[in-house]
């Protein structure tokens, strides 16, 4: 009996900081997923509509369109409204987290995030790609 291997998922990474984009890109790729990298809010929304990624990692403070506006636009558009969005932001207080969740984020992760935190939250929203052939464990 042959088991079907999960396919790679696509994650849109939107952050204006090059070091953060590189870190998140590496973390997501380590999990076996593809990435689309953008450095501003306008490109984040445009690429989300075009590619319909499986998950979006979104910064709040970005040029052109901020993350709060992006969240509202993503939730209003029929092509993007159901895509899970994880906000990863340097604004790490509860007020910022609540504002993001109210605007439509599925999860809030404060910066600086560790690789373990990024891995855990991405795996929470995407089925991990199993390169060992053992499948996902139940329970």
Model description:
The protein is of the alpha/beta class. Helices cover about 40% and strands about 15% of the residues. The protein is built from 5 helices and 5 strands; from the N terminus they run βαβαβαβαβα. It has helices at about 20-30, 40-50, 65-75, 95-105, 115-125, and strands at about 10-15, 35-40, 55-60, 85-90, 105-110. It has a 5-stranded parallel beta sheet, sandwiched between helices. α1 links the parallel β1 and β2 (about 35-40). α1 (about 20-30) crosses α5 and α2 runs parallel beside α3 (about 65-75). Pfam families: Response_reg (PF00072). Keywords: Phosphoprotein.
Overview features:
139 residues; alpha/beta; five-stranded parallel sheet; 40% helix; Sig_transdc_resp-reg_receiver; CheY-like_superfamily; Bact_response_regulator; Response regulatory domain-containing protein; phosphoprotein
